[in-house]
Every structure is written in structure tokens, then in C-alpha cells.
Design brief:
With 466 residues, the chain is mainly α. Helices cover 47% and strands 11% of the residues.
Length: 466
């Protein structure tokens, strides 16, 4: 294969898992690094569990992460005719066969083998062999199709992540490649797909290592060129167990909804199992430039929510304020604060510029921004602590002067200095109670900037409550 072609092939039985998203990122970056192509395939042969909602969520996750694909999405269930043709070819060549063993018979064989201390593999009852007489085909039993796995020898490949791996053919048995309903199984369909789509490199989770010998043997049986395989270690959760759909992991789109930026997630996912020197923060362009398939970790990575928040905070600080305003407006709407388009265009970007240095998500940004648009609930304890009888005369003077001054940051700062001098106060003595009254909290960005962006009417109204 002269052209690098990679793929990601999620199953639409739930959301796009973080581990799958990381594999998609590596596959995408590898293809982009070498000027190749990246394919999206939807492995939907698990008909009972596959849903259109899951497909939509996968496509949305790919869009949000910016992992544009050059081909696809290709759906396996639209390729059944192709799989059937390949199966018939294998049967005609004696490389696959019909198996009529019932589930009860298979269970009995497995239990007997376990009792003898043997590996519970298929016993080959229906596997053709020279001079062998097969049992009579039973009535009313729909057969599966099994692949004639080589009985001896080893399967060896040089894994892009793990290095050389060897598994004996005696450790695996005759794989079912077509179920009784005519739907191909994963290990067969994936080989035909990778062959037809000319996939040159396969990055995937290392839970697939045990599937690889079967797949390599099927590639050989078809006379198809082998892709190179790279099996990435799993991602562990906070509890040290594998992060999975069934163990509390959330979807990629949940992070979008939670106020994370795609560039932060991309950066974090890439670093979660790969490194380029000591670089912790890097752009999409740098990732493509550096990612050549080397320096992938052989050991599992641990999901660190605090580290992800740190990365996200970095990118929020770097983000364009107009773009942030659009994202924050969506979060504000969830809080019940609907803003006019003109406010989102003009005022909200100024707020984002003021507030983003103290926020690690757009959700946090929206919570801060809401104080400028919605009613503020002043905590009784903070009010009692800061808005004392001693400072109320100064607040009254401040309100009087603010009612008459020009409404810009410099003018407001000048008024504050005048009030401090007139009442012999230091900045915290006045700033803290004003912040509590105007913002509902004693900790805010610079007071003059907060008052300017709050607007004269709102400031005077809130100060009057002192």
C-alpha cells in the first residue's frame, strides 16, 4: 500500500467513548502527518443494540473534535452483499464451513473440556477434513459459518505500540464469521472492510490484541495485504479500573456541554498516551507535525479531570472573545438567561475578556456572566460582614457620584478614588461591600471594570439596596 490510510470504526451502541475518541485522534493525526487519508466506518452489525441516536452522537463528537474524515461514514449493514460473496468464496476454497452445533452441544463440549483442564475451544465437529465423515445435517438447525483457523504454528506481528507479539494458533479456535441470521461477526467484517478500504495502519485499543491473530489469519486466507497494527493501552479511571461505557465514563459531547473547548480535549487526549518531549500544551498543527506513530506509551494512562481542567483553562484564556461569547450565550440560555443577538455580539465579548482569566470552563464563565444580566442574590452572611453601618455613608456618596460621572472605566476609577479620600477609607473597605451588593460576592475582577460593564442603571439600583 503506497498511500497511508487509517480509520476509526466505532460501534453505534452508545456514545463515542473517550478511548475511541483518542484512537480516532491518533488515526487522524497519523494520516494527516503523512499526507494520507482518514476513513470513518460505522460498525453497526450488532443490530439489536445499534441506534441512530448513537450514530448521530458519534458524528457530532467527530465534528466537535474537528476530526474531519476523507471517506465515510461507511455502514457495515450496507455491505452485507459483499460479506456474503467473500464468505461463499472462503467456503468454496475450503477455508470456511457450515457448523450445525447447537448452543447446548457447544456448552456441553466446553464444560467437558474444562473438567479435563483443557482450553474450552470448539472441538471441530463440523470442520471438513480428508477422509472425515461429517455428522448428518440436523433438521431445523440454522448453521453458523466458521473460519478454518490454522491448527498449528504461530501468528506474529510487530505492533506499532507494543513491539513484537506472538500468539499460538493452538490458543484460538475456528472463529464464527457469520451468525445464524446471516450477519457477519466483528472479526470477519473488519477484515473485509480494511481490505476493501485499503487501510494501511490500524490504531485501536489493546483489548483487540486477542482478536488480531484471527484477523491476520483471515487476511492471509483471502490473499489480502496486511495493515500494520498499533494497540494502545486502555485509559484508567480515578478508581484505577478501565474507563468504559459501563464504568461511569461520559460521552465526548458531554464535555462540550460541560463547557470544554475542543482544542483542549484534543490536546489532553493526545497527551494521554503519547508524548513529544516535555510538551504539555500544543496546537492541532503541532500535533500533526509531530505525530509519526512513535512515542506511544505501552502502559495505561490515567484520566485526570484536574489536568483536563487546567488544559481547558489555558485554552479559554487564549480563546477569541467573540467566539467565547457565542459559547457562553448557549450556557447562559441553560441558566434561563436569554440574550439579544446584539448583546452577544457587543457586550458579552467584553465580559468574556474581563472574566476568562478566572474561569476553567464556559459553564463557569456563564455563571459569572449571569451576574451582569440576571438578578443577584446577596448572601446574608457576606452582606452582614461587609455592608456595615460604618461603610454605608461611603456607598451613598459613591452612588451619588456615579449617577453623574461619565460611564467609562477611567471615570469610574476616578470617582472611587474621590470617595475613598472623602471617607478616609482604603480600597478593600469600600470595594468589598460594593462587590457584594453589585455582584453578590466579595471576589470579582477589578471593581471599575465590573461597574462599567454592569451598566449605570443596574449598579445604582443594586447599591440602593444598601
Amino acid at each position: 500500500m503506497s498511500k497511508i490510510r487509517t480509520r476509526i470504526a466505532p460501534s453505534p451502541t452508545g456514545f463515542l467513548h473517550l478511548g475511541t475518541a483518542r484512537t480516532a485522534l491518533y488515526s487522524w493525526a497519523y494520516a494527516r502527518h503523512f499526507g494520507g487519508e482518514f476513513v470513518l466506518r460505522i460498525e453497526d452489525t450488532d443490530v439489536a443494540r445499534s441506534t441512530q441516536d448513537s450514530v448521530d452522537q458519534i458524528l457530532e463528537s467527530m465534528r466537535w473534535l474537528g476530526l474531519e474524515y476523507d471517506e465515510g461514514p461507511v455502514y457495515q449493514m450496507q455491505r452485507l452483499v459483499r460479506y456474503k460473496a467473500v464468505v461463499e468464496q472462503l467456503i468454496a476454497e475450503g477455508k470456511a464451513y457450515y457448523c450445525y452445533s447447537t448452543p447446548e452441544e457447544l456448552d456441553a463440549v466446553r464444560e467437558a473440556k474444562k473438567a479435563r483442564g483443557e482450553k474450552a475451544l470448539y472441538d471441530g465437529t463440523w470442520r471438513p477434513a480428508p477422509g472425515k465423515t461429517l455428522p448428518a445435517i440436523p433438521d431445523g438447525v440454522k448453521p453458523v459459518v466458521r473460519f478454518c483457523n490454522p491448527p498449528d504454528g504461530d501468528v506474529t506481528w510487530n505492533d506499532l505500540v507494543k513491539g513484537p507479539i506472538t500468539i499460538s494458533n493452538r490458543e484460538i479456535d475456528d472463529l464464527i464469521i457469520v451468525r445464524t441470521d446471516g450477519i457477519p461477526t466483528y472479526n470477519f467484517a473488519v477484515v473485509v472492510d480494511d481490505w476493501d478500504m485499503q487501510i494501511s495502519h490500524v490504531f485501536r485499543g489493546d483489548e483487540h490484541i486477542n482478536n488480531t491473530p484471527w484477523q491476520i489469519n483471515i487476511f492471509h486466507a483471502l490473499g489480502a495485504p496486511l495493515p500494520e497494527f498499533g494497540h494502545c493501552p486502555v485509559i484508567l479511571g480515578d478508581d484505577g479500573q478501565k474507563l468504559s461505557k459501563r464504568r461511569g465514563a461520559v460521552s465526548v459531547t458531554a464535555y462540550e456541554e460541560g463547557g470544554y473547548l475542543p482544542e483542549a480535549m484534543l490536546n489532553y487526549l493526545a497527551r494521554l498516551g503519547w508524548s513529544h518531549g516535555d510538551e504539555e500544551l500544543f496546537s492541532r498543527e503541532q500535533l500533526v507535525s509531530w505525530f509519526d506513530g512513535t512515542h506511544l506509551n505501552k502502559s495505561p494512562a490515567q484520566w485526570d479531570p484536574a489536568k483536563l481542567l487546567w488544559v481547558n483553562a489555558h485554552y479559554i484564556k487564549q480563546a477569541d472573545n467573540t467566539r467565547l461569547a457565542q459559547l457562553v450565550a448557549v450556557q447562559l440560555a441553560k441558566l434561563g438567561v436569554e440574550l439579544p443577538a446584539e448583546t452577544v455580539k457587543t457586550h458579552l465579548p467584553q465580559l468574556c475578556a474581563l472574566l476568562k482569566d478566572r474561569c476553567d470552563t464556559t459553564v463557569a464563565l456563564a455563571q459569572w456572566a449571569s451576574k451582569f444580566y440576571a438578578d443577584v442574590q446577596v448572601d446574608a452572611a457576606e452582606r452582614a460582614q461587609h455592608v456595615t453601618d460604618a461603610v454605608k455613608p461611603a456607598i451613598a456618596t459613591l452612588a451619588e457620584k456615579l449617577a453623574a460621572c461619565a460611564w467609562d472605566k477611567a471615570s469610574i476609577a476616578g470617582v472611587i478614588k474621590e470617595v475613598l479620600a472623602a471617607h478616609s477609607l482604603k480600597m478593600p473597605q469600600l470595594a468589598m461591600p460594593v462587590r457584594v451588593l453589585v455582584m453578590g460576592t466579595a471576589q470579582t475582577p477589578s471593581l471599575d471594570a465590573v461597574l462599567e460593564l454592569s451598566g449605570r442603571t443596574k449598579v445604582l439600583d443594586r447599591l440602593a439596596k444598601a
